[in-house]
Amino acid sequence: MSHRLLAVLALVAGLALAGCGDDADSGGTATDDAPTSASADASGGGGTPQGDAAPADVTCEYPTDDQLPVAKEVDPPPSTPSVGGSVPATLQTTLGDLKITLDAADAPCTVNSFVSLAQQGYFDDSPCHRLTTLAEGGIAVLQCGDPTGTGTGGPGYTYADETRGDEQYGPGVLAMANRGPDTNGSQFFIVYDDSPLPPDYTVFGTVDPASLKPIEDLAAQGTVPGEGGMTAPAEKVTINAVSFG
Q1: pLDDT digit string (tens) for 103-118?
Q2: CB neighbourhood size of 81 (10 A)
Q3: Would you indicate the residue range of the signal peptide (predicted)?
Q4: How many whole angstroms from its chain centre is CA 169?
Q5: Arithmetic mean of pLDDT, 51-62
Q6: Rounded to an integer, what distance in angstroms lies between the CA atom of residue 146 and that of residue 164?
Q7: Widest Cα–Cα separation across the chain
Q8: pLDDT at 1
Q9: Within 13 Å of residue 47, how many CA atoms lie on the same side as its CB?
Q10: What are phi and psi of 217, to 5 degrees?
Q11: Are 139 and 149 spatial neighbours (Cβ–Cβ below 8 Å)?
Q12: In CATH, what is the architecture of 28-36+83-148+167-176+188-244?
């Protein structure tokens, strides 16, 4: 298996997206306090993102992506981020509520996209389609963010990496999957054990330590064959909604 998260999410034209397809696909991770499932409204992203004022000097670009099928129709994010600093959120899943903290200080355009997608209900009722283990694939990640569940779907746009070159992918890291430089979309992965990945995947948040336990328990149940040659969780995992508070 390729160590590029881009590669695993089998991509268009026969490519597997690692971050977004290989070991992870085009798409990201999360942590911290946020509302529970009951607080999410019917359209998805319940609550208002809490954080610092958005940086005034940051402009984001989200060009159209004509390489991946559009998984769910959404509007592209605004070019100016709506929030800054640390943003608490909750992934409401069939594993329970996973508390995450988004890092809009170091990854403003990534968080801006994630928040926009969540508020439009993009992640609602979407599966986490890929699970890898250290024993089987050399990395330990749970990949989500493609409503089609195939690892080949995206939001219809891409955006640039927000990496420094010294990223490390240890337990609790939330990062974007991709299929190459500057091909971030909607797919993201949660790292639940130290994973030797190159610093090619934008880290945009963390997952609360207590919320890693359900993922570790999930991994202990093993994997089954998934779409495009990927391994999927033996127990199906679905993101019901993403909420902020």
Answers
A1: 999 999 999 999 999 9
A2: 25
A3: 1-18
A4: 14
A5: 86
A6: 26
A7: 46
A8: 37
A9: 23
A10: -65, -40
A11: no
A12: Beta Barrel (2.40)
